[in-house]
Amino acid sequence: MQLKELLYKVEIETVVGDTSVAINKLTFDSRTIETEDVFIAIVGDKIDGHKFIEAAINKGAIAIVCQELPTIQVEGITYILVKDTAKELAILAANYYKNPSEELKLVGITGTNGKTTISSLLYQLFTKLGYKVGLISTVNIKVGDEIYATKLTTPDAITINKYLSKMLEAGVEFCFMEVSSHGIAQFRTNGLHFTGGVFTNLSHDHLDYHPTFSAYRDVKKSFFDQLPKTAFALTNIDDKNGSLMLQNTKAKTYTYALKNNANYKAKIIESSFGGTLLRIADQEVWVKLIGSFNAYNMLAIYAVAELLGVEKLENLKYISTLTPVDGRFEYFISSNKITAIVDYAHTPDALENVLNTINDIRTKNETLFTLVGCGGDRDTTKRPLMAKIAVENSTKVILTSDNPRTENPDKIIDDMLTGITPTEEQKTLCITNRKQAIKTAASMAKEGDIILIAGKGHETYQEINGERSYFNDMDYIKEFLELNQ
Ligand SMILES: CC(=O)N[C@H]1[C@@H](OP(=O)(O)OP(=O)(O)OC[C@H]2O[C@@H](n3ccc(=O)[nH]c3=O)[C@H](O)[C@@H]2O)O[C@H](CO)[C@@H](O)[C@@H]1O[C@H](C)C(=O)N[C@@H](C)C(=O)N[C@H](CCC(=O)O)C(=O)O
Ligand SMILES: Nc1ncnc2c1ncn2[C@@H]1O[C@H](COP(=O)(O)OP(=O)(O)OP(=O)(O)O)[C@@H](O)[C@H]1O
Ligand SMILES: N[C@H](CCC[C@H](N)C(=O)O)C(=O)O
Ligand SMILES: [Mg+2]
């Protein structure tokens, strides 16, 4: 491939050198440069990638895409000056992989909570309907039934386009992908051709990264502003920011709701630990997921499937067979009838929803233990809020660690404690070691009690001081509950 083939639709300010040169691959990381690569210098959060231009050339880069031309330019190297390298990276990546998003039906799901649930269940639904399907999610990336590990919810633009291209080669027709606020802000999804976009809800999260809540909201909205007019834009109109998301979109707009008037409506008829009976489109349908937040998720899934052409009865038939996603209200009942629930609730809103769901279903004679922590190097303002929600909605609380990363785990727990009163502290234990905390909950619980372990869901690691070691909430609680028999 020649460099000039990459430049279609790229907003170029200046070109220095030859664009007819052959190129190998694209990279924004100088450490991965090979001969004839194109290096894109990104101004990062911590480091300015422009510092590595010289290193990239020394390792064999043939072309440099930058926001600032280096003072000394090397003979034989082509320099492409653009205004914003992060933004153009996505266009270069799409060109490199021959714009795979234009050949697929790509649906992006955004919002604070529910993205993994909706995208993974849409993957399940369309697979059951007989299609070859792709998925880009927090848990993993799937190309048909091949599974790939991932570290981010929305990967960088090169990775996204690489997998979309793999999907095309494998005959995938539909791809469902999570679109995180970091992904939008860093232009990881720029230049992708979406068939549809879904907004789930907006609540407190990532205020470490976005300067204000309205900045966070506007980033989410910009995803809908960029949808083409051929796309559908589906929003949860019960969320107070639901209508705002669609204010300036060119796409065809649709709404879903449990409370307000909407194009797609659902009603909860009955709920238990076994599932929920819903009324969707005037039909009753039994689903295996529980909680009103999951009623929203199921309704969004139904609506997306209909907007993609799935017939109503077939849609409902398969929706009733969908099984919960790993670590999202996953539960285990021990032989002495203690229920342990592992859930990925790592925001105040998600924690409150999960606890409300449990409290709506349980009899209240039992003890409800909630074990929760907050991530290090992440939004600190959610810490007191999550502790407060835990104590207000549980009988006993154990505050513990959840990926302290580079922070002192005891300091994180201290931050959480500022959210609760001295009286509430009496029903709270602080056990920094999460495995020990799980063991303690298991040993304190009696027949009929419920233990909620929140925050890590499907994660199989605990990150301490930048090192990840094996950790699995569900495995440990099963082990400790069965040991106590
Ligand atoms: C805060 C954040 O999102 N950071 C992302 C960002 O890194 P950065 O801007 O900090 O990069 P940097 O370290 O300053 O480096 C700047 C540039 O210099 C380059 N570099 C650096 C060193 C070197 O020797 N050579 C070199 O070329 C780097 O490759 C980079 O291009 O760009 C990187 C490349 O795409 C990402 O891997 C990285 O994600 C980090 C690891 C991360 O943890 N991100 C999380 C917060 C995230 O994105 N989460 C969202 C949201 C999840 C949710 O909704 O809950 C997600 O989508 O996963
Ligand atoms: N529609 C919803 N509204 C509110 N809370 C939800 C909803 N769906 C799921 N949750 C709660 O949020 C948690 C995370 O759900 P999910 O993984 O689907 O969200 P996400 O948007 O993918 O999160 P992330 O930003 O980490 O990728 C669940 O474990 C559950 O507690
Ligand atoms: N995508 C989120 C996940 C948080 C999960 C929680 N277990 C934590 O580590 O804080 C993030 O990286 O902020
Ligand atoms: Mg997710």
TrEMBL record:
Residue ranges annotated as motif Meso-diaminopimelate recognition motif: 402-405
Binding site for UDP-N-acetyl-alpha-D-muramoyl-L-alanyl-D-glutamate: S30, T153, T154, S180, Q186, R188
Binding residues annotated for meso-2,6-diaminopimelate, in chain numbering: R378, D402, N403, P404, R405, G455, E459
Residues bearing PTM N6-carboxylysine: K220
Keyword presence, Transmembrane: no
GO cellular component, one term: cytoplasm
Occurrences of domain Mur ligase N-terminal catalytic (ranges): 23-97
Broadest EC class assigned to this enzyme: ligase
Cofactor(s) essential for the protein: Mg(2+)
The record's account of how the chain is modified after translation: Carboxylation is probably crucial for Mg(2+) binding and, consequently, for the gamma-phosphate positioning of ATP.
Localization (cell): Cytoplasm
Protein name stated in the entry: UDP-N-acetylmuramoyl-L-alanyl-D-glutamate--2,6-diaminopimelate ligase
